[in-house]
């Protein structure tokens, strides 16, 4: 029996899907900015900070990289209330994504920092630059240039992985698709639209990141 596509039945719910898409975009932008900031701080602390701080960063990175994202999300949303820390679903989703991306970006950025020639660092020190000036103007500039493609790919992965935040009722695109499917029962059409939306979002995000990289590194060169 042939299946008859009826996308018209989704039209009454276009605003729900649009709101879910917007939430996913905002979630990605905010968590990317905060996650990369955490990763930069973690990589800098592990490379140039005291040994005790480096070990804290190692524990954080290994803990996050070796546990499923959905378990981290559930721990933040369902587990922390037992310790008296109660977060709404939106805050929990943002926090989980920031922590997750922060751990992965820490290792990516650290690899870039370690790839910077030692002579460049020594040259900065010989010019009477402070440790933080060397880190900011010499090390991080070169490190980000080297690892930007890998970091961009990780951001895409985290963005696509954000679909699991629907499991705590954060109203992202997947949550919206589930809501619509439960109302009109056009599962094929609903999830096809959601799949195409994620595909387009990933392509656009990659293009935006590539464009930002060209602008940033051109200005820095």
Protein described:
This protein has a single domain (7-220), classed as MetI-like (MetI-like fold), CATH 1.10.3720.10. 78% of the residues lie in helices and 0% in strands. The chain is built from eight helices and no strands. The longest helix has 35 residues, at 14-48. The termini are far apart.
Topology diagram in text:
Elements: H1 14-48, H2 51-65, H3 69-79, H4 89-114, H5 118-126, H6 131-161, H7 173-184, H8 187-220
DSSP strand count: 0
Distance between the termini: 61 Å
Encode the helix/strand succession as letters.
HHHHHHHH
Stretches where pLDDT is under 50 for at least 5 consecutive residues are none
Estimate what percentage of residues fall within beta strands: under 5%
Count of all domains = 1
Oligomeric state: single chain
Biggest β-sheet description: none
Rg calc: 21 Å
Q: How many helices does DSSP assign? A: 8
* Fourth CATH level, the homologous superfamily: MetI-like
